[in-house]
Amino acid sequence: MDMNKRMWNRHKKALLDGVRNATDSDMQARFTELLVNMVEQEVMAATGEVDAAAEKSGGICAVQITVENAGKSSEEMQKDFQEITEAAMPMLEYLNKHYDPHASAVITEGRVTIVRDEISCPLPVRD
Hints:
Layout: H1 3-21, H2 25-47, E1 52-54, E2 61-63, H3 74-98, E3 103-108, E4 111-116
Antiparallel strand pairs: 1-2, 3-4
Helix pairs in contact: 1-2, 1-3
């Protein structure tokens, strides 16, 4: 099993553990929402509901939803997607090794910031 698939599965397991061990219903709902989003991406890629390209290493499918009139060709978008994925993997490995699923990395020019979601709740979004 390649590194990407192992990391994907570890993240899913961490979310499952979060659902099982959540101390309140809001926390459990958040873990469940994140887990459902991951599974939804896998299913959509597997059923061809979105454009998906398997990574060269034979790992998980990388889901790419194309936007009409984005100004880039499909090949350019796929190349950008692949470059971003490759660049992000070391940071994801670092987060998985040193933090929990609540931690995120914000990368800007000249700074990397690790932040944690202590509490969150969904709010209504206008149409």
